[in-house]
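Hi all, posting the design record for the shared folder.

TITLE: backbone redesign
STEP: 1 of 1
STRUCTURE INPUT:
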C-alpha cells in the first residue's frame, strides 16, 4: 500500500483531493455564516448572478438621486430661512412707513433712514447666502454672488435713488417715482446684481436650477434673487419692477434718501405715502415666493419617499439572491464536517495516523 501512495496511485491521492475540496467548501460556508452573504463574487451566485448584477446599478442610481435631493433640500432650507428674514424686514418696513406718515419730524425721518441703511447692508448678506459651496439665490450661476458689491448702500443704484429722493421737493414725487422705478428695474452698469441675474424677471426665473430626482424626472429647486413675472400690465408696470427683491431695494433706497429731503413739503408727503403703498404687494410677493420654496421642498420630500420605497423593494430582491440562509448553511456545514471527519479517519487508517497527526 505504501508503494501505491508514493507512486500517486490508489486511495490516498483521491482522499487527499477530497479533503482539499471539502476543506475549501467548509471555509466558504464559514464565511457565509460570518458575512451573511451567499458568495464572495457574482459568479458564486450561479443562475441568480444576472439578477444581482442588474439590481446593483439600479440601487446606485437611486442613491445618486437621493443625494441630489438631500443637497437640494439643504439649499432650500437655507434659502427659506434667508427669505424669512427678508420678509420680516419688509413687514417691519411697512409698519414703520405707515407710522412715519403720522409723525414726519426730521428726527423720525432720520431714524427710519438709518434703519433702511442697516437693512440694505443686511439684505446684501442675505441675498449672498451660501450653502453647499454655492449661492442659494444665484440660480444656475451659483458660483457668482447675486449682489456683486460688499454692500448695497455703496451701489450706484442705491446712491442714485437716494440722491433723486433728496430732490423730491423740487423735482416732484411723480418724477422721482418714475426715476427710481426705472433705476431699480434697470440691467445696465448701475445694476447691483451679477451679470447672469441682471436680466428681466422672467429670464431670471428661467435660471432656477433643476435637480434630477428620477428617470427622466427633474424638478425646480431654488429661487433667483431677481426673478418674478414680466411687467406686462400697465398698472403693474407703473408701480413694480416685477421682482419683489428689486422692489424692496427700491423702497429701502427711497427711505434711505428721505433723510436728505425736506419733510415739510407736500411732495415729500406724497412720495412717502406712495412708497408706503408699495409694501403690501412686496410682502405678498415675498410670501408667495416662500410658498413656492415650500412646495418645492414638499415635492422633493415626496419623491425621496418614493425612491426609498423603490430602494427597499430592490434591496429585498437583492437580498433574496445574495443573503445566505443561516439554518441551511449550518446544516450543510455539519454534513460537510462529518464528511471531512470520515475522510480523515480513512487517511488515518490508510497511513496508521490519527487525525491530530495529520493536521
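Okay, here is what came back for every position:
SEQUENCE:
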Amino acid at each position: 500500500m505504501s508503494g501505491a501512495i508514493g507512486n500517486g496511485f490508489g486511495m490516498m491521492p483521491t482522499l487527499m483531493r477530497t479533503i482539499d475540496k471539502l476543506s475549501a467548501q467548509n471555509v466558504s460556508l464559514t464565511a457565509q455564516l460570518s458575512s451573511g452573504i451567499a458568495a464572495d463574487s457574482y459568479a458564486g451566485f450561479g443562475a441568480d448572478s444576472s439578477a444581482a448584477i442588474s439590481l446593483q446599478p439600479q440601487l446606485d442610481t437611486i442613491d445618486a438621486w437621493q443625494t441630489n435631493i438631500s443637497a437640494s433640500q439643504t439649499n432650500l432650507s437655507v434659502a427659506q430661512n434667508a427669505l424669512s428674514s427678508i420678509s420680516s424686514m419688509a413687514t417691519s418696513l411697512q409698519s414703520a412707513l405707515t407710522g412715519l406718515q403720522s409723525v414726519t419730524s426730521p428726527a423720525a425721518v432720520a431714524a427710519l433712514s438709518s434703519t433702511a441703511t442697516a437693512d440694505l447692508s443686511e439684505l446684501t448678506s442675505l441675498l449672498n447666502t451660501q450653502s453647499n459651496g454655492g449661492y442659494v439665490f444665484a440660480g444656475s450661476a451659483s458660483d457668482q454672488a447675486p449682489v456683486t458689491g460688499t454692500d448695497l448702500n455703496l451701489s450706484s443704484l442705491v446712491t442714485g435713488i437716494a440722491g433723486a429722493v433728496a430732490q423730491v421737493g423740487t423735482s416732484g414725487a411723480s418724477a422721482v417715482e418714475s426715476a427710481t422705478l426705472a433705476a431699480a428695474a434697470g440691467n445696465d452698469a448701475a445694476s447691483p446684481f451679477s451679470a447672469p441675474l441682471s436680466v428681466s424677471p422672467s429670464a431670471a426665473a428661467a435660471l432656477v436650477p433643476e435637480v434630477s430626482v428620477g428617470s427622466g424626472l427633474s424638478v425646480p429647486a431654488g429661487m433667483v434673487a431677481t426673478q418674478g413675472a414680466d411687467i406686462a400690465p400697465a398698472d403693474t408696470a407703473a408701480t413694480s419692477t416685477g421682482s419683489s427683491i428689486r422692489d424692496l431695494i427700491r423702497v429701502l433706497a427711497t427711505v434711505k434718501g428721505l433723510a436728505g429731503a425736506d419733510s415739510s413739503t407736500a411732495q415729500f408727503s406724497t412720495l412717502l405715502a406712495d412708497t408706503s403703498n408699495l409694501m403690501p404687494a412686496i410682502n405678498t410677493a415675498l410670501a408667495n415666493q416662500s410658498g413656492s420654496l415650500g412646495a418645492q421642498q414638499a415635492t422633493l420630500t415626496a419623491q425621496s419617499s418614493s425612491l426609498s420605497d423603490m430602494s427597499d423593494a430592490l434591496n429585498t430582491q437583492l437580498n433574496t439572491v445574495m443573503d445566505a440562509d443561516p439554518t441551511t448553511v449550518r446544516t450543510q456545514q455539519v454534513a460537510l464536517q462529518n464528511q471531512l471527519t470520515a475522510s480523515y479517519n480513512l487517511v488515518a487508517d490508510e497511513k496508521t495516523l490519527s487525525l491530530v497527526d495529520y493536521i
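COMMENT: The beta strands are 130-131, 134-135, 210-214, 217-220.
Let me know if anyone wants the other runs.
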